[in-house]
Every structure is written in structure tokens, then in C-alpha cells.
Amino acid sequence: MQIFNTPIEYLKGVGPQRAEVLKKEIGVFTYQDLLHYYPFRYIDKTRYYKINEIGFDFPLVQILVRLKSFEVIGEKQSKRLVARVVDETGELELVWFKGLKWIEKTLKINHLYVVFGKPTFFNGKPQMAHPEMELFSKESKERGNLSLQPVYSSTEKLKQFSLDSKGIQKLMSNLLDTVFSEIEEVLPSYILEKYKLLSRRDALLQIHFPTNSTVLSRAQATLKFEELFFIQLKLLKIKHLRTLKFKGNVFATVGNKFNYFYENLLPFQLTGAQKRVLKEIRFDSQKGIQMNRLVQGDVGSGKTVVALMSMLLAIDNGFQACMMAPTEILATQHYASIKSMLPDDFVNIALLTGSTKKKDRKKILEDLVIGTLNILVGTHALIEETVVFKHLGLAVIDEQHRFGVEQRAKLWKKNLIPPHVLVMTATPIPRTLAMSLYGDLDVSVINELPAGRKPIQTIHLYENQRLRMFGYMRREIAKGRQVYVVYPLIQESAKLDLKNLQDGIEVLSREFPLPQYKISIVHGQLKPDEKEFEMQRFIKGQTQIMVATTVIEVGVNVPNASVMIIENAERFGLSQLHQLRGRVGRGSEQSFCILMSKDKLSKEGKVRLETMVKTNDGFEISEVDLQLRGPGDIEGTQQSGILDLKLADLTQDQNILHEARKTVLEIMEADPELQNAEHQILGNFFHKHNTGITLDKIS
Ligand SMILES: Nc1ncnc2c1ncn2[C@@H]1O[C@H](COP(=O)(O)OP(=O)(O)OP(=O)(O)O)[C@@H](O)[C@H]1O
């Protein structure tokens, strides 16, 4: 095993200088790092193309040509090296914009070259920019036998040390010579057989030196499976260790508060999905095992009431509960909506945020320690050291996936027996991401909207159709409804944001003048109490229009609002648009979402707006979002470690992820300690590669 940790300078063909560049440029420090430096594509080398075959939109090709001439032309930015190459059918231009000096030095007139690249047409002539090229030699003829030529990504700096794709491949060949016999299997053989995976040795060999495309696909599938399998194993192992280490508070009874609320106070019938999720929570919380559950529900699906009833359950069993929200506005909103559902002296409930006054804060903390405070709602202020509960039984985190495994663990530090944890997310997360990001949690889904909701109608309008937008606003306000108008927040320029907003307000105030119409304005530059004041005016129905930057994005609940207008909608991400739209359609009347955009949209911007018009389904939207942006840009993924994926791609490899997770679940069910003979191999891998999972880490 240790051989894989050998520093890369010891590999034949590397040495100290190249080692430095490999480390700096592509993070390759050890043999192992290089072994997992996979090609990012393969060139079909079964043939050489002729220049006169090259057409528009051609794939990567390999051609055999003679170099006739080259020269550096242009100034500054447009400075480039242009080379003229020919074969018996025609002439082609090769162009480089970077690394000119280096390339110029290596080119040899009248020699034969093998050139790879993606051809295009420029000014009517075939051209190839930044091609890879090597002198034609006996060796390249032989390597031509490899029908699929791997391409490794390289950098200008690496190339200066002859580590272009070919150079890296040479190192790979040396590496495999050295370590091949040491590569050990990591997956049990029954899994390899079941999924027709290659042995690990073959997979690693084939991914770097593929014999043909069929074997290559199997090699890729094998390594992807392995990668995703071990992430899942890690997550589910955390979960298992947690159950071993922590007893859970037992919520044995469904008591008076819960029942009274359900029978007398609940203003509507729970949906089937809400009931099911509550049942799951009740079942979990009476087992004596700490609950860690994710409740996923689309916007407006009624998560707050589920959270509240779970908290009542905790209180009925002699515990306290807390609810944590990512922003002050949201925490305040949760606090207000919970209070509004309960009579005054039903439970003791308080709000704690960064702007709670010193005196109030002191009283809250005292009540918390002696246990007279039942529910504490707040922001991240709740996990500060000074906040001490007498007996915290349940923590609800309304988190919009801002918390990863480790952050959640912070909450548990507060208690000998950690509280049950309920994570609520409104933005639907694509299934694959949810599995990876929250793989250690049990998942409940509220997949049903309250009865009587009409699907929101979404309309996309361009600037020259603004009058129609005013029309919608007037009509709805005349019916007694309220309207949101939202402007994007351009983080880099708070001033510009404000200007945008102010211009918008000016126009709106002209169209909707006082005293008939009243407008609330909320933006990031206001103090918390000013924001709160403006929000309250709108919530209470004293104003009909709420103009805001995206501060209202999540969680605001004004059922009477029926129009959501989003200005510069093309600037928003899909999940944000969906969240914003979710602020309307929360009552029983027909609601509208109007997406205002500029005329010229990018391709992606167009897809986003079309998707919004087409569907109201948050899960569908999140899948499109994942495809457009990739997992890296989706909030929360940073902390999860799933971005370190070397090969697997969460968008394309959903099936593999699914199967990997299923396999791990079966293993953890049957043999959680990984002691069976067939699973020892997994235990070994786990310990050797230490994935960072120890009891300390999760305590
Ligand atoms: N079963 C139900 N029947 C009717 N109305 C309901 C039901 N459950 C919740 N509601 C109402 O629907 C609205 C949305 O509920 P809630 O605020 O809990 O949604 P949410 O899931 O938190 O959504 P978001 O993430 O968008 O804030 C509220 O006005 C709430 O009172």
C-alpha cells in the first residue's frame, strides 16, 4: 500500500524539478495522485484524416501533415503564431495565442507532424487553434495502434517541462510499470460480479491505456462506482457510528399540547404528506436513537406546521425545542407565524437574533437555562457558546442547504444526549445531490401541496410589454390582492442595486400613485428594524405593493399576495426564481408570476426562463438547474466533499450513484461493522484511506 504514497519525484522520469511543477500545476504529489489523474477525453486514433475532409463542426481529429512555414504576427492581445501545414489534399492553418516562444522554438520546417485538434473554419479557410502536435516517428506509428488515445489536461508550464498530454502519458506508463502488481482490490468480489465491473487493476490500466471503447466504458463505470460507493459508505458509516455513540431522547407520548393543537387550533386539514412525515418523525423520536431527518418539501408545501407540531411533541415530553433559520428576516417570520398559530400562554416562545436587545437576551438565556422557555427561534446565534438549554430535545434547522455534516454536529455538542435534528429544505435538491449531501440523514418528502391551490401561471414578458405587466398588477390589486416586485442583487455593486431599485420605484410610484396605492420597500441597506417595519406593513395588508431586492427570497408567507414580478429575471438562477415564485400561490386564489427580461437572452438564460414558464415542479426545476450549472454551483455542495469527485459526474451518473447507494445500504443493514469475511476488504480500505471518520469527529 505504502508505495502509493511515494512522493512523485521518485517516479522514473520525474525528478525534483518536474515534481515541483506537477505539484503546483495539477496537485499531483504522490504516485496515487498521478494514478488518479485521469484522461479527460480520448481521441479516436484509428485513422488520420485528410485536410480536404475537414468540414464545419468537426470532432477532434488527427492529421498527418508537413510543416511548410510559420510566423508570429499581430500586436499585443492579437499577437499569435500562425503555421502553415499541408498534406496531399490541401493546406491548413494552425494558430497559437499562448506560449508562442516555446512553440516557436520547437517547430521544424519541412518535418512531418502528427497534429490533433478540433478544426474550424476562419475566413473561409480550415484552421486549428492550439492543436497538439508531435514529430512523426516510428513510436507514434506504434502508438497509433492504440485506437483510443487518452488526452490528459496539461498547462503551458507543464508543457515547458515536456509534460504535455503525451509526456504525462509516458509518466503514467512508468507508474503503471512500477505499481501495477501492488494495486489491490477494494470492492468485494460479489459486487464486482453483480455489476460486471472490472478488477481494480484492469480498470486503472484501461482508463489510462484503453484497448477499445467497450472495455474503456467498463473501466470508467468501475472507477465511478468505486468512487461513489465509498462516499456513500462513509456517510452511512457516520450514521451508524452516531447511533452507536448517542442514545436519543425518547419522546414516548403524544401529549396534551400536540393533541390540543391538532384538534382545536390547526386552521386546516393536514395534507396526507404532512401526516406521513409527522408519523415518520414520531416513530423516529420514540426509538431511543437520535433522529437525523431531512424534510424536503417544495415551496409552500407546509413545512412550518410540521416543524411546529414536532416541537410540540418535544415539549409534551418535557423537552425544549429550537428552530434555526439562515437569516434574521426568516427567523422573525417563523417566530411570527408560529406565534400566530398558538394562543398566548400555550407555550413560552422567544426569538433570538443578532439584533436582540441586551436586556431581552439576558432574560431569554436565563429562561432557557432554567427551562421555562419552551421554544427558541433564531438565527445562527443559537449555536453560540452562551446559549445553554436546560433540556434541548429537538433542533429544527431551516437551512436551505447551508449546513454540511460537520456543521450540524456543532449542535450536538450542546447536550450530553444530542437533540433530535430535523433539517428542512425548501429548495428541492436533485435526488443525486440529496443522496450525497445528506446521505447520512433519513429523508422525508412532502410531495403534496395543500388542497385547493391553483398552479401559479408564469408569464415571460420583454421590456416592450411592460404595460401588460402593469395591467396584471392593477387587476389583482383591484381584487384586493397584493403584489411583489423583486430586483436582482448584484453583490459587487450595492450602489448600482439601489439605483436599479430606486429607478424602478420611481416608475412604479408614477403608475401606482398615492393615496390609492401604497408601496413597501425592502432592501439590503435598511437596518433590521426598518426592514421589519416595511415587511409588517405589507404582511398586515397596509401596502399593496412590496418592492424588494432578493431579501424576500425564502420563507416569507403572505397568502394574500397573488402576483410576483421578477425584474431582470435572466439574472437569477433557476432555484432562486422558483423560490421567489413560491412566495405567491400560497392561498386559494389564482396567482401569477411575471418574469421581466431584456430582449437578448443567453442560451442558458433562455432555458431558465422557458423552464419556469413550463413547470411549477420544484424537483423538475432542480434537475434542469443541476444540468445547467453542475453541482459545483449549487449551494451547500462546497462543504460536502462530493465536489472532490475525480471521475463520477452527478448529472450523468445518477444510475451508478443509485446502485452504489443501494449496495451500501444493503451492506450496512446486514453487516454494519463490516466483519463478514467478504466485507473485510471494505473495512481495510476504510481504515487505510482513512476517510476521516472517527467517533471524535462526529461528537
Ligand atoms: N395542510 C394545509 N392546508 C392548507 N394550508 C396549509 C396547509 N399546510 C400549510 N398551509 C399553509 O400554506 C402556506 C405555506 O406553508 P409554509 O409556510 O409552512 O410553507 P413552507 O413549506 O415552509 O414553504 P416555504 O419553504 O415556501 O416557506 C401557509 O400559509 C400555511 O398556513
Automatic annotation (TrEMBL):
Give start and end of each Helicase C-terminal domain.
Answer: 454-627
- Domain Helicase ATP-binding: start-end pairs: 284-446
Q: Where are the transmembrane segments?
A: none
Uppermost EC category: isomerase
Q: Give the EC number(s) listed in the UniProt record.
A: 5.6.2.4
Among CDD domains, the record links this protein to: DEXHc_RecG, RecG_wedge_OBF
Q: Does the keyword Hydrolase apply?
A: yes
Query: Its Gene Ontology molecular function terms?
Result: 3'-5' DNA helicase activity; ATP binding; ATP hydrolysis activity; DNA binding
* Pfam families per record: DEAD (PF00270), Helicase_C (PF00271), RecG_dom3_C (PF19833), RecG_wedge (PF17191)
Q: Which UniProt keywords apply?
A: ATP-binding, DNA damage, DNA recombination, DNA repair, DNA-binding, Helicase, Hydrolase, Isomerase, Nucleotide-binding
Q: Name one GO biological process term.
A: DNA recombination
User: Which Gene3D superfamilies would you find in this protein's record?
Assistant: Nucleic acid-binding proteins (2.40.50.140), P-loop containing nucleotide triphosphate hydrolases (3.40.50.300)
Which InterPro entries has this protein been placed in?
ATP-dep_DNA_helicase_RecG, DEAD/DEAH_box_helicase_dom, Helicase_ATP-bd, Helicase_C-like, NA-bd_OB-fold, P-loop_NTPase, RecG/Mfd, RecG_dom3_C
Q: Does the keyword Chaperone belong to this entry?
A: no
SMART domains listed in its UniProt record: DEXDc, HELICc
Catalyses which reaction?
Couples ATP hydrolysis with the unwinding of duplex DNA by translocating in the 3'-5' direction; ATP + H2O = ADP + phosphate + H(+)
Locate the coiled-coil region(s) and give their ranges: none
What family is it from?
Belongs to the helicase family. RecG subfamily.
Task performed by this protein: Plays a critical role in recombination and DNA repair. Helps process Holliday junction intermediates to mature products by catalyzing branch migration. Has replication fork regression activity, unwinds stalled or blocked replication forks to make a HJ that can be resolved. Has a DNA unwinding activity characteristic of a DNA helicase with 3'-5' polarity.
Q: What is this protein called?
A: ATP-dependent DNA helicase RecG
Q: Which organism is it from?
A: Pseudopedobacter saltans (strain ATCC 51119 / DSM 12145 / JCM 21818 / CCUG 39354 / LMG 10337 / NBRC 100064 / NCIMB 13643)
